[in-house]
Write a structure and sequence with these properties.
Elements lengths: L9 H5 L11 H6 L17 H4 L10 H14 L3 H15 L9 H6 L6
Length: 115
């Protein structure tokens, strides 16, 4: 049996055959171009910046509502923001004023983006 070259025998665990060692510089390995072509049959998803961006804000809720939100998030295995978003989207359907644009001075005062 061949004695490992390392005091703890780690060299035998991490050594690779010479064919498996990549050739080239470290920069070539780290910054080599990666194929971005999608796999055959996979859908191409184009991110929409409005859908993917989120805004953090602070608000207050009754303690009982807050506890229910945490419980629902746990049992449904969802994050609280997705539950709040779904509830608000459902609420907005019944309140068409949510889609009316604000007057420009009010939009600027509230620091809302243009839509």
């Amino acid at each position: 049996m061949k004695k490992p070259s390392s005091k703890f025998g780690l060299a035998a665990l991490v050594s690779q055959p010479a064919a498996a060692i990549p050739k080239g510089s470290v920069d070539d390995l780290l910054f080599a171009p990666v194929s971005t072509s999608p796999l055959p049959g996979s859908p191409v998803v184009v991110p929409n910046s409005e859908l993917t961006s989120k805004t953090r804000f602070t608000n207050t809720l009754p303690t009982s509502t807050y506890v229910q939100l945490h419980r629902l998030a746990f049992w449904d295995r969802r994050d609280m923001s997705s539950i709040i978003d779904a509830a608000l989207q459902e609420y907005f359907v019944a309140h068409p004023d949510a889609d009316k644009p604000l007057p420009e001075p009010e939009r600027v005062k509230r620091k809302l983006p243009t839509r």
